[in-house]
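Fold in tokens:
===
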Amino acid sequence: MSTLAELLAEGREQRICSGAAWSVGGPQGPLDRGWTGTRCWDGPPLDGDDVWDLASVTKPIAGLVVMALVERGALGLDDTVGGYLPDYRGGDKAELTVRQLLAHTSGIPGQVPLYRDHPTRAALLEAVRLLPLTAQPGTRVQYSSQGFIVLGLIAEAAAGEPLEALVERLVCAPLGLRDTVFRPDAGRRARAVATEDCPWRGRRVVGEVHDENAVVLGGVGGHAGLFSTLADMERLGAALAAGGRGLLRPETFALMTAAHTDGLALRRALAWQGRDPVGSPAGEVFGPESYGHTGFTGTSLWVDPATRRYAVLLTNRVHPTRTGDGIVALRRAFHDAAAVLPPVAAGGHHGVE
């Protein structure tokens, strides 16, 4: 059993998650991959074809869509919200730029449970529009799901296509991702890993987006809503480790993954988290230029361009409840072990009971 397999099997024993899947590798594919545990605590074992709620790992995938539109000239990084969304003209967000939204420096607050008071898509989007800014744009990194909801609307307006069609056309199709979708169909829901026993919905959530604001939006948002499989995520990881191969031109990709918040407290690229010097979810070994993203459900994707290594971790740490922060130490330990994994013949480890 590999170090990663042991580490994640132990995470299940500590009841951090009922199941976990992982893949660590490079441009040529995985060096070590596998899965351990069950889809829910009383459910069937993982089989490697399981469907996971990516949560905020949706954000960099939406970001890849935005950068692809920038590359095609449909959108500019310094274009403003008001330039694409007429409802925002004249308000406090009219002059915010695409770049500020991508770098979480727009001043739009995040983590606001708007779903509680705004139960329809129209009402929730209006509530996002009216949220008062909590920082001067460009002065503070403030993680904002609401900012990415706005970004998704801008991408749709710029391209004249729904966000889910853009993700399919600009990210999934080029990489051959077959199971990376918003709103999984019945077949994919049958393979889905359980998330929370949700107090708001009054039931266990399986194959339906966990993020409540995304639920009200109909399951599709720039901030959350994508589901995926281990195979798809490792294809994405390999493409990123290869410098964005198949997705963006090298110069566009370099711009996206470079730090854009130097001088501010947190290191951010465009739609990616950078590696903060203290407390990074990527642990201590991934390099200073590494980038990635985490998801509230217990997912993450991290890439170190210096070593051309990716690390994918998929867990259901919100099952059966979101309380508990064991994932924080587990994820850091996973990344530290992934970063020093020796480059062996591909194939790795498949499945652990």
